[in-house]
């Protein structure tokens, strides 16, 4: 069996209330042996921690999602930071964070402020940054440009951009591109784009419960489905599934260096 790492899954959300434990079991049985879990905001931390404390294969991260930025963002961000600074918890990344202007541009400036604050957390605590970006590359890169030559590392989560987008993001040499079920979609341009992206810069993710790969598209996604993403990359890169597994695992460990001893 090929061991895979899901670098981005939200099995702690309400979509899994009916079968959460089974979802973890199905993932492990499918060969997805490590599940990295980005937080969403101040309302989700406890549920995430509860799941991660129950399973050695689950690794929590802490962050404040851009779509959660609202009028009360200062207090909410401070609450999330309280978990990070507490000695009670061990986190493996800062995420997921970023800028999202797809649904609403009302808090554009605030999203950029919140993002930059969390970039500083990642540097201060030597943790990888898990970046979400939707319809906001200019804003995202405006913030990141000042940190290009720092020790910052991480993942550009759910990459679905163009070859030009990929080229700009890969300039951040300690970052990987997170590839999920979108790569399997019939009209996806990702297979073509990835031909210009070295396999050494790619990690696997599901973004469960979202973005289920073919043949599960339209249904709730879960970490066990990561195998379908790996199989698709095997075809794109023309290498055996075992090589996709080993190379993407190696790539993930370059990002999550503080988790390496527990893998």
Automatic annotation (TrEMBL):
Pfam families: TatD_DNase (PF01026). The keyword Hydrolase applies. The keyword Metal-binding applies. GO terms for cellular component: cytosol. GO terms for molecular function: DNA nuclease activity; hydrolase activity, acting on ester bonds; metal ion binding. It comes from the Bacteria. A divalent metal cation 2 binds at residues 132, 157. InterPro entries: Metal_Hydrolase, TatD-like, TatD/YcfH-like. A divalent metal cation 1 binds at residues 8, 10, 96, 207. Keywords: Hydrolase, Metal-binding. CDD domains: TatD_DNAse. Belongs to the metallo-dependent hydrolases superfamily. TatD-type hydrolase family. This is TatD family deoxyribonuclease. It comes from Phocaeicola plebeius. The lineage of its organism: Bacteria, Pseudomonadati, Bacteroidota, Bacteroidia, Bacteroidales.
């Amino acid at each position: 069996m090929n061991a895979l790492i899901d670098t981005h899954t939200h099995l702690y959300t309400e979509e899994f209330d009916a079968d959460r434990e089974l979802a973890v079991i199905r993932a492990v049985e499918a060969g997805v042996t490590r599940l990295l879990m980005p937080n969403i905001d101040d309302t989700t931390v406890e549920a995430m921690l509860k799941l991660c404390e129950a399973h050695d294969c689950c690794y929590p991260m802490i962050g404040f999602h851009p779509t959660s930025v609202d009028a009360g963002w200062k207090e909410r961000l401070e609450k999330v930071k309280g978990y990070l600074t507490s000695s009670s918890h061990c986190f493996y990344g800062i995420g997921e964070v970023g800028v999202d202007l797809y649904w609403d541009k009302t808090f554009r400036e605030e999203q950029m402020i919140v993002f930059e604050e969390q970039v500083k957390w990642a540097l201060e605590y030597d943790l990888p940054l898990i970046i979400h970006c939707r319809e906001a590359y200019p804003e995202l890169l405006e913030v990141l440009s000042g940190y290009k030559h720092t020790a910052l590392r991480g993942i550009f989560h759910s990459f679905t951009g163009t070859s030009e987008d990929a080229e700009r993001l890969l300039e951040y040499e300690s970052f990987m591109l997170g590839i999920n079920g979108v790569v399997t979609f019939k009209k996806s341009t990702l297979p073509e784009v990835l031909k210009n992206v070295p396999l050494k810069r790619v990690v696997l993710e599901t973004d469960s419960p979202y973005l289920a790969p073919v043949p599960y598209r339209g249904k709730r996604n879960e970490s066990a489905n990561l195998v379908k993403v790996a199989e698709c990359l095997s075809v794109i890169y023309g290498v055996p599934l075992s090589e996709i597994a080993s190379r993407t695992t190696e790539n993930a460990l370059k990002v999550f260096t503080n988790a390496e001893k527990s893998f």
